[in-house]
Structure formats: structure tokens, C-alpha cells
TrEMBL record:
Positions of transmembrane segments: none
Provenance organism: Pandoraea captiosa
Taxonomic classification: Bacteria, Pseudomonadati, Pseudomonadota, Betaproteobacteria, Burkholderiales
Pfam families associated with the record: GST_N
Molecular function terms, GO-annotated: glutathione transferase activity; maleylacetoacetate isomerase activity
Protein name: Maleylacetoacetate isomerase
Length: 217
């Protein structure tokens, strides 16, 4: 196997990469790193990924991490179908949409942040869940405003899915995990529905992964 992916069923970032790999029909071997159990801090994985996060892509021996970097790398190595629009303006817009979730929302709900809230500030389960739901809504609301100004046709940046659609779909999963009602974001919900009608998105959903289990936060 020339492509390996260190990931975890619950990882939103790993979901994004799995969709990209599926859209490009690239087979890979997944290696589980249980981030809920803290295995990302094990010594052997720290040697793989200096940031000690998932996912990490191993491509013919080359290691790439951070989901957006991985998706752009895959697009350069396997440009069909394109995940990054060819037009510079559209490409910048797609990247900006991706970063709404990748940089401005999802980082606030990852395990190390939830753990820090509990250990440093004494936040209980309800408080941590409310925190996560807040940031899920923030990302969804931003996407709703963006889609209002530039409606999907039928995807965020044209006729086919891009990194923008992958990240919007990923944000709806965060909302789903923290019981956010997507009815408040009809444009986002409609776009996500179109995405999850595609096997590449549906089969990467965390709840459809082999390791899925019901867990608190």
C-alpha cells in the first residue's frame, strides 16, 4: 500500500481527508490513532507527527499533515477531479471557505481544548458541550452568510465539490455531534444534503466508520 492515513473515526479533520481520497478514488490503508484515549501522544506516533494530531498522510513514504495541506497536496499529485478551482479568484474563495471550519471553528472543539476547559477551568460536561455547540453554530452561521451572498450552483464554487464543500460538510458533522439544529442554516443544510448523497461523503461520515461508538463529547 503506497498511501497510508493515520486517523480516527471521530476526527473531523480525518473525515475531510477521507472524502478527498474517495473523490479521487485513491485507495489507502487507515491506521487508527485513538485521540479520545490520548494515543496521539504516544511516543511512536509523536515520531510520525510532531504536532501529535491526526490525520497524517503517508504518500509513498512522504509524510504530510494538517488536513488542508493534505487536500491541496493530493490535488497537486492527482489533479483529477480538481478539489481546488483553476481560477485564482475561485481558488482563493474556496480556500477561504475551507478555513472557516479548519481554522476558525473546528480547532475550538478538539480533544485537547475540551480537556483544557475541564482541567484548567473546571468546566463540566454540560459546559464543555455548550462551548462546542457555540463554535459549531459560529461556523455554520458564517457559511450560511457566505452562501447567501454567493449561492451554491449546485456546489459552493460551481458544478463539482471542492475543498469548500468538504469543509462545509465537515462543519455540519460538528453541529450534528453537538445537537445543533441545522434548520437554522437552510442553505448549509441543502448543500450538505447534496454532498452526503455522494458516496465519497456518505461513506466517510464518522458514524459509518468501523470504529464508531457512542461516546460523550
Amino acid at each position: 500500500m503506497t498511501i497510508q492515513l493515520y486517523g480516527f473515526w471521530r476526527s473531523n479533520a480525518a473525515f475531510r481527508v477521507k472524502v478527498a481520497l474517495a473523490l479521487k478514488q485513491l485507495p489507502y490503508e487507515e491506521i487508527e490513532v485513538d485521540i479520545l484515549a490520548g494515543h496521539q501522544f504516544d511516543g511512536d506516533y509523536a515520531a510520525v507527527n510532531a504536532e501529535r494530531v491526526v490525520p497524517t498522510l503517508v504518500y509513498h513514504g512522504q509524510r504530510v499533515f494538517q488536513s488542508l495541506a493534505i487536500m491541496e497536496f493530493l490535488d497537486e499529485m492527482h489533479p483529477t477531479p480538481r478539489l481546488m478551482p483553476g481560477n485564482p479568484s475561485d481558488r482563493a474563495y474556496a480556500r477561504a471557505m475551507a478555513l472557516v471550519s479548519v481554522a476558525d471553528s473546528h480547532p475550538f472543539v478538539v480533544p485537547r481544548v475540551r480537556k483544557h476547559l475541564a482541567q484548567t477551568y473546571g468546566a463540566g460536561l454540560d459546559g464543555v458541550e455548550a462551548w462546542c455547540a457555540h463554535w459549531a453554530r459560529e461556523g455554520l452561521a458564517t457559511y450560511e452568510r457566505m452562501l447567501e451572498k454567493r449561492p451554491a450552483a449546485p456546489f459552493a464554487v460551481g458544478a463539482t465539490p471542492t475543498i469548500a464543500d468538504i469543509c462545509i460538510a465537515a462543519q455540519t458533522i460538528i453541529g450534528e455531534l453537538y445537537k445543533v439544529d441545522l434548520a437554522a442554516y437552510p442553505r448549509v443544510a441543502a448543500l450538505a444534503k447534496r454532498c452526503f448523497e455522494m458516496p465519497a461523503f456518505a461513506e466517510a461520515h464518522p458514524f459509518r466508520q468501523p470504529g464508531f461508538r457512542a461516546v460523550e463529547i
